[in-house]
Amino acid sequence: MQQQYAQSFLPEEDLAYTVLSDLKRVTREYATGATESSCPSIRQMFTNLLNSTLKMQGELYQVMQSQNMYNTASPVLRQEIDKQIKEYQQTQQKTSQFLQQRMGSQSQAMHAGYSHMAQQQHNQQNSHQPYYM
To answer: For residue 118, what is the DSSP state?
Structure first.
């Protein structure tokens, strides 16, 4: 009776996809819990939960693939992969240059600020008038 209800409610493939999606979501949450935990025992608990969830996800994927319920990605031409790698490398290089420029300008600004403060201190020390803020 219960099996008939489950079959009429949702097809097996849809149920499997739902469970697989939930396992993927839970995996992300356990990984976040493990990486953000400061307590070693809590971190270990999340790591254990993560590993068991990954195992379940892998087993479900294997069953779905063997039942032709899950289609893997189609093959991609090597030139398309190379193109994407080149684009990501260019983005990485632009980001590094941007950070270097920003860090360099911050460093220059800090250096200029320190030089200005040193000059003010020197002027204050050489002045006989009191300095009030």
So the answer is: H
Tens digit of each residue's pLDDT (9 = 90 or more) over 96-113: 998 888 887 766 666 555
| Residue at 45: amino acid letter | M
SS3 129: coil
CA gap 52, 32 in Å, rounded = 15
Report the C-alpha gap between 62 and 60 in whole angstroms.
Answer: 5
Q: Locate all alpha helices (DSSP H) within the chain, ordered by sequence.
A: 2-9, 12-36, 40-66, 78-126
pLDDT digit string, tens, across residues 37-58: 999 999 999 999 999 999 999 9
Buried b (16+ CB within 10 A) or exposed e, 3-16: eeeeeeeeeeeeeb
